[in-house]
Amino acid sequence: MAQAGHAAAFRGRTPTRALQPAQVRAAAVRAGTVVGVLLALWGLWELYRYVWIREAWTWPFPVNDTTLPHIHSIFQALGQPTSQGPLLITFLLHAAWFTAKEALVGFGLGAVVGFALAVALVHSRLAQRALLPYIVASQTIPILAVAPMVVVWLKSGWQSVAVIAAYLTFFPVTINTLRGLQSADTAAHELLRSYAASRWKVLWKLRVPASMPYLFSALKVSATASVVGAIIGELPSSIQGGLGGAILNFNQYYSITPADLWATNLIAAALGITFFVAVVLAEKLVVRRAPEQRA
After folding, report:
1. 200 in a domain, yes or no?
2. Is there a single domain that holds both residue 135 and residue 275?
3. pLDDT given for residue 239 in this prediction
4. pTM of the full predicted structure?
5. How many domains does the chain have?
6. What average pLDDT does the segment 204-231 reach?
7. Burial of 160 (0-12, 13-18, 19+ CB in 10 A)
8. By percentage, how much of the chain surpasses pLDDT 90?
9. Between residues 259 and 21, which one has the greater pLDDT?
10. C-alpha to C-alpha distance for 102 and 112, rounded to whole angstroms
11. Do 125 and 57 lie in a common domain?
12. Do 90 and 209 lie in a common domain?
């Protein structure tokens, strides 16, 4: 009996071990694809430069070392010292960390507000009809018009930047989570109601699990939007420690050192990708393990 139990346990573990090489190959293929796409974009960038400069074309804009520097020049600029002393890469990483903290607070605040709004709306059609049009209308106002007003209300500081980041974050979370909460299985909902389950129990046992794929789809969008919101929020708030301040600073000297501004944009993009990847990893931990836990 004991041997049979050990054999059964061994058989239960075998498929997991057998899948590991396939998972490694799949990860290698994905990594190779990403590298291949980046190299292709690099090649297209340099080809575009070469052709436009050789033919002296000016549409859509004249191409030269100022308007479109070499990719390798941008990476070389990261290793050059700034006027303050440290290397540009060191300066930008400190700025990215400063902006990341603001974006993270805004992302968390926006996600909580968006989720709470979705929960409130799913339980009241009257609230949906009353509030949803205004929630949608809030996103038609340009963020560049909203940011200065928030700075005036909350004063210059990281708190105002976090609120601006939250402004761009809450909307996708609200809309997608509401759709996810409404997608719960009708038969399961009726079964819970037949057992006199409370709204709270129906919410956490049925609606929230059903909304997880929708929620994480929204969080992927909101993660990158929070970084954009934080950078935009730094522009009118006179915060010099983040990427927004670096962009304003290097923009003044663009005609002299254009690669510095391009390098700043590169670090900002990397920060947004980092936020996106973090949400993807969280999705794998939460969503993909849920069926195994229920089983």
Report:
1. yes
2. yes
3. 86
4. 0.86
5. 2
6. 95
7. buried
8. 72
9. 259
10. 16
11. no
12. yes
Of 68, 93, 120, which residue constitutes the final position of a domain? 68
Residue at which a domain ends, from 68, 91, 114 = 68
Mean pLDDT value across residues 134-153 = 92
Instruction: Report the CATH number that the domain containing residue 110 is assigned in CATH.
Output: 1.10.3720.10
What does the mean pLDDT of the chain come to?
89
Domain that holds residue 44: 1-68
pLDDT digits (tens, 9 = 90+) for 241-254: 999 999 999 999 99
Asked, for residue 74, whether it belongs to a domain, the answer is no
Question: Among 150, 170, 151, 175, which Cα is nearest to 109's?
Answer: 170
